[in-house]
Amino acid sequence: MLEFETKFREAMRSRVSLLDKIMHYIVKRKGKQMRPMFVFLTAGVSGKITEATYRGASLIELLHTATLVHDDVVDDSNMRRGFFSINALWKNKIAVLVGDYLLSKGLLLSIDNNDFNLLKIVSEAVREMSEGELLQIEKARKLDIDEAVYFDIISRKTAALIASCCSVGAASADAGTDMIEHMKETGKVIGIAFQVKDDLFDYELSNKTGKPTGIDIKESKMTLPLIYSLSVSDASEKRHIINIIKNHNTDDKKVKEVLDFVDSKKGIAYAKEKMFVLRDEAIARIQTYPDNEYRRSLTALVNFTIEREN
């Protein structure tokens, strides 16, 4: 990872001083870097880590960072990982151009090194992520998301990127087509579990405040705990809760009513159960490979995705 960070910083470098300053800011506030870890560990499980693995991990991070920068513009968000977002500091026009720059750096990194197979994997993931985001926006207007639609959305939005990390790792290690596809499907299962965990944060107690955040409710987002709770409710309860989400989602007391409703309907327990089933499926898939330090670390990383506290 230390070597990767050096190569990644080099991949982001620009001769335009404003861009270089922004790239430095992005690198400085990096997150957990779980996605490059998935690339390296799956490469280790599939064969061996090569120079293509480093480029694949950089490609994933460049395109992922570009989507985050653009997301903050779309969502009009001023914060990202506890820091000011690019659009908050440099305004929307510069943030959009920075996202475009990152996308172009990822494309050129692959093209210049003839990593067309890696570029194809990641480009397909970006397409799926865009489709998932648009599907969620379309469905959110009517609040008619059921469990099948929810899993379809997160399979595209979150799971597609982690699936691409795992397939890029395998492809960079010169694994066969079957193994690359198996790793992709494994990554998809991990990604779905990862997103269910993210959605649970909204309903579980925050370490800082001791209260659930309720942010998804305030943004009218239908996630698994709420979807399940509505599915086991009678028509009048359902109408009442939907009305709050549509028309009173800025009222803290009303949001608390929805949180209590989900708790009473065992929506949190249901989502956790689904998450653990997905975790077990992902680990079972990983266990089909020979035992080594990479397989053990990949298993530990899967466990971390559902045990993390932020």
Tertiary shape: globular
Return the CATH topology: Farnesyl Diphosphate Synthase
Lateral arrangement of strands in the main beta sheet: 1-2
Say what oligomer this is: single chain
Number of helical segments with 4 or more residues: 14
Beta fraction: under 5%
CATH architecture group name: Orthogonal Bundle
Short description:
The protein is an all-alpha fold and about 300 residues long.
Overall description:
This protein is mainly alpha-helical. It has a single domain, classed as Farnesyl Diphosphate Synthase (Orthogonal Bundle). The chain has 14 helices and two strands; from the N terminus they run ααααββαααααααααα. The protein has helices spanning 2-12, 17-28, 34-46, 51-74, 86-112, 116-142, 147-172, 177-200, 215-218, 224-231, 235-247, 252-264, 267-286, 293-307; strands spanning 79-80, 83-84. Strands 1-2 form a two-stranded antiparallel ribbon. A hairpin with a 2-residue loop joins β1 and β2. α3 (34-46) runs antiparallel to α14 and α8 runs antiparallel to α13 (267-286). It is globular. The chain starts with a helix and ends with a helix.
Provide key terms for this protein.
310 residues; 76% helix; 14 helices; Farnesyl Diphosphate Synthase; 1% strand; mainly alpha; two-stranded antiparallel sheet; 2 strands
